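Please, structure for the following, as tokens.
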Amino acid sequence: MNWKTHMALGAIAGYCAYPSWKGSVIGATMALVPDIDQANSKLGNLMGPLSKMLQKGFGHRTVTHSWVILFLPFLLFGDSPAAMAALWGILSHLISDMLVGRIQLLWPLRVGWLGIRVSKSMYRTVDRIVFYVAIVYIVIKGYQ
């Protein structure tokens, strides 16, 4: 998924976990965090050397797309509604990446990659559909 789709899904997930604008913002922001291991991602561009180091040392969709990243919300926010919004935002990223590709969820165990491998054109199609459905959902929920 691209960054816009991850943010839209993260906003929805964050709101579900912490029903407020803060939950949406936290969920949307944290949904970008797993892609810090890709130097040319939105967050990777901001984090520069750290992102390049993660990409070179581990590769994309490994450590930051595994169970390890699920501890980050609690390290940042403690045991709070904000931590739950952050957790759900990250989970939305991992699940959506598994729908259009594979991640190493059980890293560092070498038991294989989990997810559905799809073609480049199917990836783009699924990404666009999910993005527009998420935006429609956000608009409808916003008017309720």
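The CA atoms of residues 37 and 56 lie 9 Å apart. Helices lie at 3-17, 21-30, 42-47, 49-58, 72-77, 81-100, 120-142.
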